[in-house]
């Protein structure tokens, strides 16, 4: 029998995500009668999102109720599911940080303090849940999923499931090869933003030879002529194929962009590996386009919200998104079993990784819970050169966060592929921590030696 639920959405001012969630709820009959509590610190955005959600629901003829609040505690009360999509620092603050990197000779990224602010928020949400709705599931939908979910599952008793879009990268491969998605079986385990396609089957047959044929016959022309329309269009780039050739398995989604510094030394290098015109999503060209598109979409939403005659179904459509949040809620609540790509503690799903490290794996989900599929071993070369180093980086970041040891941030800066000297790394780190908006991080991190002692290590 269908059962309604109460869902708390933290960071609901992200209108596109929140209204996509509403659409999926409206189109899921099993969850009729459910209530949604939108929570954000931006009351104006919240009011607009709630109004549009109500209008969309009325147009569809669904039975959902909504409330909005700037109080996290109020939103969490009696929640069955909590979806956290919030980020603490804005895109514009990140732009300011990248200007500091550039001043010190780093391209686009450089020394920093990890995910200090988002870690704080994630732990605050999880600890509030322990007090207010301890039996609820937390569906973590904002980055850093890998690090943050590992932190929360170790530090709290909350049930956590992390989600990301990256695994849908295989759709791009299928479309480019002219394959029917409904005839594909796919698997790509790993850790978030470092997943590798172990299975790519078409009508039950290994389809990797089709990829090899495309690379041989069409790859060179594609790399010379393909112009990306989206900033994240890198799935069949030179960089992704190079990594496939290195490791024998295709890196999927965001995985090609986040490994190995030599792909990212400057804009021309990035364009060579990840294509025109953006050079992948992590460039001074791509990021403004991404933010502009977000702002444009937000503008459309605001305009429609202010127009009483605008139809929400025209703006958001009437077909389900490919997001997993609502289907997972339906599976856990109403036993509508399915297989999903999730981020949960390993517990033996991937051999050679500690049980308490959150991994990204396929899982069967039903009323009994989330049951990760045991995927076995990944190639040893991938483990040694990709997965284990990324896990070590995660562990290093969590230790720096927990201890506040500033020398661990400096160690990261010194090991950055773009660092030319101790003085460069030290100066960039000091300037980032001293930047307006980073005061709390600056206060949190301290060197393990007497104040001022670091000056003896700097060149005059």
Q: Please, how many helices?
A: 18
Helical/strand content category: alpha/beta
Largest beta-sheet characterization: 6 strands, parallel
How many DSSP-defined strands? 15
| Overall 3D form | globular
Percent of sequence in beta strands? 5-15%
What is the CATH superfamily label of one domain? AglA-like glucosidase
Query: Segments where pLDDT lies below 50 for 5+ residues?
Result: none
Quick check: average pLDDT?
95
User: What strand order characterises the main sheet?
Assistant: 3-2-1-4-5-6
User: Helix amount, in percent?
Assistant: 40-55%
CATH architecture of one domain: Alpha-Beta Complex
C-alpha-based Rg, rounded: 23 Å
Could you name the CATH class of one domain? Alpha Beta
CATH topology of one domain: LDH C-terminal domain-like
Distance between the termini: 74 Å
Describe this entry's structure for a reader.
The chain is an alpha/beta fold and 460 residues long. It has a domain at 6-99 and 113-164 and 295-326: Alpha-Beta Complex (LDH C-terminal domain-like), CATH 3.90.1820. It has 18 helices and 15 strands. The strands form 4 sheets. The protein has a 6-stranded parallel β-sheet, with helices on both faces. A 3-stranded antiparallel β-sheet has the order 7-10-11, with no helix packed on it. Strands 8-9-12 form a 3-stranded antiparallel β-sheet. A hairpin with a 2-residue loop joins strand 14 and strand 15 (369-372). The longest helix has 24 residues, at 380-403. It is globular, with a radius of gyration of 23 Å. The N and C termini lie far apart (74 Å).
């Amino acid at each position: 029998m269908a059962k309604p639920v109460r869902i708390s959405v933290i960071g609901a001012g992200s209108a596109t995500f929140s209204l996509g969630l509403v659409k999926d709820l409206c189109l899921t009959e099993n969850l009729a009668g459910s209530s949604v509590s939108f929570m954000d610190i931006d009351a104006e955005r919240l009011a607009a999102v709630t109004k549009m959600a109500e209008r969309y629901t009325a147009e569809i003829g669904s039975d959902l109720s909504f409330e909005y609040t700037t109080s996290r505690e109020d939103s969490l009360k009696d929640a069955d599911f909590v979806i956290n999509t919030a980020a603490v620092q804005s895109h514009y603050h990140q732009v300011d940080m990248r200007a500091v990197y550039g001043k010190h000779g780093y391209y686009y990224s450089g020394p920093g303090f990890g995910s200090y602010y988002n870690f704080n928020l994630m732990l605050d949400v999880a600890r509030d849940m322990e007090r207010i709705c301890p039996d609820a599931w937390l569906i973590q939908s904002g980055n850093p999923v890998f690090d943050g979910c590992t932190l929360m599952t170790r530090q709290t008793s909350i049930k956590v499931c992390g989600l990301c879009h990256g695994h849908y990268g295989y759709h791009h491969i299928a479309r480019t090869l002219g394959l029917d998605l409904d005839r594909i079986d796919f698997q790509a385990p790993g850790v978030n933003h470092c997943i590798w396609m172990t299975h790519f089957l078409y009508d039950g047959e290994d389809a990797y030879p089709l990829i090899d044929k495309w690379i041989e016959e069409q790859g060179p022309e594609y790399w010379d002529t393909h112009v990306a329309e989206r900033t994240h269009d890198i799935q069949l780039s030179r960089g992704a194929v190079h990594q496939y050739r290195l490791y024998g398995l295709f890196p999927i989604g965001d995985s090609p962009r986040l490994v190995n510094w030599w792909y990212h030394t400057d804009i021309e290098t990035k364009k060579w590996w990840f294509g025109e015109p953006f050079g992948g999503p992590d460039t001074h060209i791509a990021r403004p386009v991404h933010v502009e598109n977000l702002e444009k979409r937000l503008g459309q939403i605001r305009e429609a919200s202010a127009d009483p005659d605008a139809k929400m179904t025209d703006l958001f459509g009437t077909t389900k998104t490919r997001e997993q949040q609502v289907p997972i809620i339906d599976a856990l609540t109403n036993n509508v079993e399915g297989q999903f790509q999730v981020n949960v503690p390993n517990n033996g799903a991937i051999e050679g990784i500690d049980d308490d490290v959150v991994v990204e794996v396929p899982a069967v989900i039903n009323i009994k819970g989330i049951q990760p599929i045991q995927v076995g071993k990944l190639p040893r070369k991938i483990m040694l050169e990709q997965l284990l180093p990324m896990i070590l980086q995660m562990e290093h970041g969590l230790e720096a966060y927990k201890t506040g040891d500033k020398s661990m941030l400096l160690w990261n800066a010194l090991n950055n592929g773009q660092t030319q000297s101790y003085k460069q790394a030290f100066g960039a780190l000091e300037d980032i921590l001293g930047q307006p908006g980073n005061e709390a991080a600056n206060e949190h991190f301290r060197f393990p030696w007497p104040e001022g002692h670091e000056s003896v290590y700097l060149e005059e």
